[in-house]
Automatic annotation (TrEMBL):
Belongs to the DOCK family. The keyword Oxidoreductase does not apply. Residues 1-221 form the DOCKER domain. It comes from Oreotrochilus melanogaster. Residues 136-163 form a coiled coil. The gene is Dock4. Keywords: Coiled coil. One of its GO terms (cellular component) is cytoplasm. Pfam families: DHR-2_Lobe_B, DHR-2_Lobe_C. One of its GO terms (molecular function) is small GTPase binding. This is DOCK4 protein. InterPro entries: DOCK, DOCK_C_lobe_C, DOCKER_dom, DOCKER_Lobe_B, DOCKER_Lobe_C.
Length: 221
């Protein structure tokens, strides 16, 4: 009925298993293979469609998550409980795509879904009351990626220091990915994209964000 819900799957349930479970419940439904907003023909169609994709919870208690000295198991609880808002990111390229450095034109369309009630509740799913869509620039995207990576490093280091982690492989792997970023070139690509004179002159409004990106790089080092 053209409604949208966020559902909490079973523990350790893969997205494919959840999709199959929903299709078993709605045997006549046609599964949509993308997460883009459906067009009007789908909304007006006589047939039944199901569009299923993964969303990321946006914790309400940021203060708890960022405060030092709070045990990780408490932080883990607040990351996935009492959640009203969820988000879905769709990367896309604007303008000319640089084959040498794709970060220069990599924008993110961020859709935030706001529920009528927080999850988990008396039910495992609640209806979406409101959706908001914003576009994040390549620079804003770079800042968020670095913030998340720095937070991940801090958490892993803390777990090692408090002897919560018996095996230090997760930290070693994370450090390898940061120091020798084999997949996408790491922070060097951000420097090439946003610290060059041409970008700074063409985007005078981004001065504070460029400073923020530089601070995050130093913090990571």
């Amino acid at each position: 009925q053209n409604k949208e819900f966020v559902c909490r799957g079973h523990d350790y349930e893969r997205l494919e298993a959840f999709q199959q479970r929903m299709l078993n419940e709605f045997p006549h439904a046609i599964a949509m293979q993308h997460a883009n907003q459906p067009d009007e023909t789908i909304f007006q169609a006589e047939a039944q469609y199901l569009q299923i994709y993964a969303v990321t919870p946006i914790p309400e208690n940021q203060e708890v998550l960022q405060r030092d000295g709070i045990p990780d198991n408490i932080k883990s609880f607040y990351k996935v409980n009492h959640i009203w808002r969820f988000r879905y990111d769709r990367p896309f390229h604007k303008g000319t795509k640089d084959k040498e450095n794709e970060f220069k034109s990599l924008w993110v369309e961020r859709t935030t879904l706001i529920l009528v009630q927080s999850l988990p509740g008396i039910s495992r799913w609640f209806e979406v009351e409101k959706r908001e869509v914003v576009e994040m620039s390549p620079l804003e995207n770079a800042i968020e990626v670095l913030e998340n990576k720095n937070q991940q490093l801090r958490t892993l280091i803390s777990q090692c220091q408090t002897r919560q982690m018996q095996n230090i492989n997760p930290l070693t792997m994370c450090l390898n990915g940061v120091i020798d970023a084999a997949v996408n070139g790491g922070v060097a690509r951000y420097q090439e994209a946003f610290f060059i004179k041409e970008y700074i002159l063409n985007h005078p409004e981004d001065g504070e964000k460029i400073t923020r990106l530089r601070e995050l790089m130093l913090e990571q080092v």
